[in-house]
Write a structure and sequence with these properties.
The complex is a heterodimer of chains A (408) and B (134).
Chain A (H helix, E strand, L loop, with lengths): L1 H25 L2 H22 L5 H20 L26 H9 L6 H11 L5 H8 L3 H18 L11 H20 L10 H17 L4 H14 L25 H15 L6 H14 L8 H14 L3 H15 L1 H14 L7 H12 L3 H14 L3 H16 L1
Helix pairs in contact in A: 1-2, 1-3, 1-4, 2-3, 5-7, 5-8, 6-7, 8-9, 8-10, 9-10, 10-11, 10-12, 11-12, 12-13, 13-14, 14-15, 15-16, 16-17, 17-18
Chain B lengths: L18 E9 L1 H5 L3 H21 L2 E6 L7 E6 L2 E6 L8 E10 L2 H10 L1 H5 L1 E6 L5
Antiparallel strand pairs in B: 1-5, 1-6, 2-5, 3-4
Classes of the chains: A mainly alpha (408), B alpha+beta (134).
Chain lengths: 408, 134
């Protein structure tokens, strides 16, 4: 039905903005959600009768505000005298950072460090992403009851512990922006490599994360890392269709069909990266985006600028000295200085045991051994990776490689 | 128009609410016991300065150091009888060593104060909103 599609469109485009202002108006997450829902329901019947309003989003905004105030009135024992017919929109209160936007306020509230990481992501997906509880549950591979409880608990903690609905003060902002960005990146990664979803990709989650990052960049244009994250996700997402074969198998970067990469998205990603780099505040997201940019700028896998990618991984290790970054750095080193150098690093990582249980370690090792022509050892490593991998698309890739190594 | 005010809503969102929080200071008593006299004096001086800052900001509503858990006695009614036991209710690696009661607008402000508390450096500070009867 066309009307339902139009309402859905308003929900997608303007839902978060309206919800965020309703939360400020009512001072209550649940009441704001109920009021918005009521406006959507009313839109379906009123628009069917009277035709589409000139500005559907503005209509939803006004009606949901009125619904919110009606709810407040009904809950009050003593009625207010001289109630205004339509609610006047109060100017937003001054906030310490100087940036005014309800959605940003909502993002910071959802991503408050006093909430558990799972609750932050779920609440951000629910309120800003507009995802249903069932959709969030699917993304996290848990049942809806668990997600619903998580959301209820988070809202209760916000209310009872007094987590503010505000953008933090300037001095606290860098720390808090980092949390916001990490939640956005988590949403993206869940979409990019769903741990247990039947397919590797959940493009809707990726698109949502990119939208939130774009919003953060718009609202905090001075935060270079926000631009870095936007660039990183946009450049990664631009390669999505080349990443999975028609048989549902993961296609590694080097053999992807580069003609399938989305050129306008790549251009947008490179532009976001340039904007971020101009601020001259280096950071890990910008470095990762720069690595992604070098990959998409190469016309073929052979033309990839591995020395520079290796150097960037070296810089990234300064910011994020994690074993996962080391693994990537080792793979880049193998492409720069030679396979043996990369293998030695990976074997060192293996001995340290920090990545035991992480399927990409034996998978990376197997790929290098295979390139070096050490097929029996490669087969063993592919088997080790297969014992750990959970995603079916990655499994199919590893199985094919294992078969190749075993038949020689 | 008067701003509506309801119990059960997020009144602290409105920016002029009053919330009360307990900052519970946990630290290792055994480590404290190993401090020299001068070091102990330095710790107390930091707490005195912090307490003064809280009072000057007008957010301090109470608080105190607690004597070590070796002085604690735990009482529980079991089968209608008072059971009195020597010691704290639970043996832990870090012990509750003191607390502050603060009155601020929201958790953000309470956490900012907690981070300034010397206890956050020496151990940790648990921030809890006060409930009924506060």
């Amino acid at each position: 039905m066309l009307l339902a599609r139009i309402v859905e469109d308003v929900v997608r485009r303007d839902g978060a903005r309206i919800l965020a202002s309703l939360i400020r108006l009512t001072g209550d997450f649940d009441r704001a959600e109920d009021a918005l829902q009521e406006a959507y329901t009313r839109a379906l019947s009123v628009w069917a009768q009277n035709g589409l309003p000139e500005r559907p989003a503005a209509w939803i905004n006004t009606v949901s505000r009125r619904a919110a105030l009606d709810m407040l009135r009904r809950q009050r024992s003593v009625p207010l005298e001289a109630e205004p017919e339509a609610p006047t929109i109060e100017p937003e209160a001054e906030n310490p950072s100087g940036v005014e936007d309800d959605r940003l306020r909502l993002l910071f509230t959802c991503c408050h460090p006093a909430l558990s990481p799972e609750a932050r992501t779920a609440l951000a997906l629910r309120t800003l992403g507009g995802l249903t509880t069932r959709e969030i549950a699917r993304a996290f591979v848990e049942d809806s009851t668990t997600t619903a409880q998580r959301l209820v608990r988070a809202k209760k903690k916000i209310r009872e512990a007094g987590i503010p609905y505000e953008i933090p003060a300037r001095e606290a902002l860098p720390d808090r922006v980092a949390t916001v960005l990490s939640v956005i990146y988590l949403i993206f990664n869940e979409g990019y490599a769903s741990t247990e979803a039947p397919s590797l990709l959940r493009p809707d989650l990726c698109a949502e994360a990119i939208r939130l990052a774009r919003l953060t960049v718009e609202l905090l244009p001075g935060e270079a890392e926000a631009g870095g994250l936007l660039a990183l996700m946009t450049l990664t997402h631009a390669r999505r269709t080349a990443r999975i074969s028609s048989e549902g198998e993961l296609i590694p970067l080097e053999v992807q069909d580069r003609a399938c990469w989305n050129a306008p998205e790549i251009a947008a990603g490179l532009e976001a990266l340039d904007g971020a780099l101009q601020l001259r505040q280096p950071g890990p997201y910008q470095i990762q985006a720069a690595i992604a940019a070098l990959h998409v700028r190469a016309h073929s896998a052979a033309e990839t600028d591995w020395p520079q990618i290796s150097a960037l991984y070296g810089a990234l290790l300064q910011w994020a000295p994690t074993p996962v970054v080391e693994l990537n750095a080792a793979a880049a080193l193998a492409m720069t200085l030679g396979i043996e150098h990369g293998l030695r690093w990976i074997e060192n990582l293996e001995q340290r045991g920090e990545l035991s249980g992480y399927h990409l370690l034996p998978a990376a090792k197997a790929d290098l051994l295979r390139r070096a022509g050490r097929q029996p050892e490669a087969a063993l490593a592919y088997q080790a990776a297969l014992a750990l991998v959970r995603n079916p698309a990655e499994r199919r890739y590893l199985e094919r490689r294992l078969a190749e190594c075993s038949t020689r | 128009m008067k701003r509506p005010d309801f119990s059960g809503t997020y009144n602290h969102f409105k920016g002029h609410s009053i919330m009360k929080y307990a900052c519970l200071i946990y630290g290792s008593e055994s480590e404290m016991a190993h401090l020299s006299q001068e070091e102990m004096a330095a710790v107390y001086a930091r707490y005195t300065a912090f307490g003064k800052e809280l009072a000057e900001a007008g957010v301090l509503r109470g608080g105190s150091e607690l004597k070590p858990v070796s002085t604690a006695t735990t009482v529980r009614i079991q089968n209608g009888k008072v059971l009195t036991l020597d010691g704290p209710f639970a043996e832990t690696k870090e012990q509750l060593g003191g607390f502050y009661l603060l009155e601020v607008e929201n958790l953000e402000q309470a956490l900012a104060w907690a981070a300034k508390c010397p206890g956050a450096t020496d151990g940790c500070v648990e921030v809890r909103p006060l409930g009924m009867g506060a």
